[in-house]
Amino acid sequence: QSKADGRNAYHFYVAAMDAEVQARKAIERDMRLALGTPQLELHYQPLLDLKSGRIVGCEALLRWNHPQLGWVPPAQFIPVIERTDLIIPLGRWILHQACRQGRAWRDAGLGPMTIAVNLSPVQFRHSQGLVAMVTDILDQTGLAPEALQLEITEGIAMQNVDSSIEVLKALRALGVTISIDDFGTGYSSLNYLKRFPVDKLKIDRSFVIDIGQHPDNEAVVKAIVDLGHSLRTRVNVEGVESRTQLDFLLAHGVDEAQGYYFSRPVPADAFAALARDPRDWLAADPEDGG
Ligand code: C2E
Ligand code: MG
Ligand code: MG
Ligand code: MG
To answer: Which superkingdom, per the lineage (predicted)?
Structure first.
């Protein structure tokens, strides 16, 4: 590689960096304007109980309908917002909105539904604020704490083990449940994991993708199911897209599944319609209409 190539690469790098900084500033500016407007919405993806074949809850997922760009995926803006102070009001809005919706569903007779809400690492690190915020929002919305599940990633929990355990204990003392998201992608020490007060492990989608084709990933799924059960947690698998995958999960004792096979994340009304549908979701291919 010549010197000139190196310099060009550097110039290219600087230009790209500048573009990235500009893009981040634009996202932050636009999100400031979006907060509190209908540009932001939560969608809800069903959680399927694999014993009963019924929808037992949902995961709330943030959606941003940007006035110029249209729908922007959370993977594009959440990491940017997490680097700003905006993540605190945004996180509060998400939790409030999800709890309010959960309460409204309960009032409308939808039956006991768990609403799972993702917590950002920044929210989790503001532990005092977090516990107070969850307490306030449950109070304001009147949602039963048992109906709220908070999702944290493996990485966040492992960063500062002792203080994480304290925060999780405080949250659980309120009555909410805790799940570890994207499980298997981080570096959990099993030694720590057994000390963590958690209620659910969510096996990351990457392990499910080639079920039926890749014996190694199947072995990992089986091992995590056993691990979760020996720690007395429920085990969820996310990203289920096919009957083959579902059959594997049913055969290996997975408790709960979530994925496009059943439903994509959908607006609140559409979720309520799915949850009221009395069908056995495991009986046949949902796309075949039962
Ligand atoms: P996550 O918490 O692991 O959420 C699951 C993601 O997998 C969602 O993507 C969901 O739409 C997607 N998914 C579910 N089933 C399938 C499937 O069968 N196939 C495929 N290809 N994808 C599936 P989404 O909504 O784009 O969110 C991506 C990530 O952004 C989330 O991952 C979460 O880390 C973050 N996120 C989303 N909403 C929020 C939020 O309200 N707060 C925070 N802090 N993070 C959020
Ligand atoms: Mg999640
Ligand atoms: Mg996940
Ligand atoms: Mg994931």
So the answer is: Bacteria
Half-sphere CA count of 25, side-chain side, radius 13 A: 6
Say yes or no: CB of residue 61 within 6 Å of ligand 1: yes
Q: What is the pLDDT of residue 287?
A: 60
Instruction: Please determine, for the modelled complex, whether the ipTM score is greater than 0.90.
Output: yes
119 versus 212: which is more confidently predicted?
A: 119
**C-beta of 181 in contact with ligand 1 (< 6 A):** yes
Question: Residue 172, class by beta-carbon neighbours within 10 Å (0-12 exposed, 13-18 middle, 19+ buried)?
Answer: middle
State the distance from the centre of ligand 3 to the C-alpha of 219, rounded, in angstroms.
Answer: 20
Q: Is 184 in the pocket of ligand 1 (CB under 6 A)?
A: no
Quick one: how far is CA 256 from the chain centroid?
Answer: 14
Q: Which two three-digit tokens encode residue 136?
A: 């306030």
Q: What is the pLDDT of residues 48-98, one digit of tens each?
A: 999 999 999 999 999 999 999 999 999 999 999 999 999 999 999 999 999
Crossing angle, helix 127-141 and helix 87-107, to 10 degrees? 30
Q: Position of tokens 């309010």?
A: 100
Rounded to an integer, the average pLDDT of 119-135 is 91
pTM: 0.93
Ligand 1 center to 74 CA (angstroms) = 7
